[in-house]
Amino acid sequence: MAVIDVALAGRSYNVHVARDLLDEVAELAAAFIRKPVVPVVADANAKAHHGPRLEKALTAEGRQVAWYEVPSGESSKSWQGLQSLTDWMLAQGVERGDHVFALGGGVVGDLTGFACSILKRGCGFVQIPTTLLAQVDSSVGGKTAINTAAGKNLIGAFHQPSLVLADLTALDTLPDREMRAGYAEVIKYGILGDRDFFEWLVENGAKVVAREPAALEHAVATSVAAKARIVAEDERELSGTRALLNLGHTFGHALEAETGFSDRLLHGEGVALGMVLAARYSARRGMISESEAELVAQAIADVGLPSEISALQLACDGRKLADHMLHDKKMDAGTLPFLLLRSIGAAFLAKDVALDDVASFLDEQLQHR
Length: 369
Hints:
It contains 13 helices and 11 strands. The protein is an alpha/beta fold. It folds into 2 domains: 172 residues, Rossmann fold (3-Layer(aba) Sandwich); 155 residues, Dehydroquinate synthase-like - alpha domain (Dehydroquinate synthase-like, alpha domain, Up-down Bundle), CATH 1.20.1090.10. The strands form 3 sheets. It has a 7-stranded mixed beta sheet with strand order 1-2-9-6-5-3-4, sandwiched between helices. Strands 7-8 form a two-stranded antiparallel ribbon. Helix 4 links the parallel strand 5 and strand 6. The longest helix is centred in the middle third of the chain and has 21 residues. The protein is globular and about 60 Å long.
């Protein structure tokens, strides 16, 4: 088992990475269970696949489970979804000293974490992420949010979990496409700040996606440790360090918006394409070589992730994609910083990027790739 400390002043917590953690939840999370009934929020798929194990582990220690089932998909991260969940939590008698458990992917973690951040001005929660993307990214770091008509994750709060249990056996039931989408957030850590990890993934990425236990644990633990270091340095994204975690997201969110935040393009697939575009745009600006940009594209393509936006067959031009970026959370005084590369393993925040130039670049990508 790997145990990673997310070191925050006065609010540090551990992330456990191993197989079969669901069977040990009553022991590992004992400090966060105060009452006979444990409130658990789960999406329909996670509850069906992993709910019985979680409930068995808790009932064996004399606890009962109160389930709140969230429909799978981004549509649950809404005002209505937030209201329904907080009403349920109040009906369950959740108090400020209690902890709500979140079982599922990023949607459940985001929704539950945000609900806990505002319920009675803040109660605790425990993350039990069941997707690769959630285990290496959204369950760690305290970003919680819902979506609105204006865009994704625009209403939210920083609210750190008290514990994260990343049970690798939960990934056994994950569809292959979801596994690949989560892998995009794994390779992101190599591209943005760890050339050695990137090169390890070039050699071992197929093993990670195939869920080979040793490779998978190393990839998840390394990713979580990388995020923990960044979050500890810049919890609320004020210094610019944490912004590095958004590599690929500005381009990716624009593609997600154009495809309607639908299953046509999963979030991880959008991030994968976004990182390819960030690398190619960096090459276009003379920051890295074209060959290095294509190393990024090839590493992403090699595990079955999309690496060319032409595959999406979008009925739009570069200007429309660039316009989607105007709703990005990182907009500041009318300027949108971009995460670009000085080399593989060295991302930086560029604040001199003109959206007109981005639009022209995207036109080139749409036409020639």
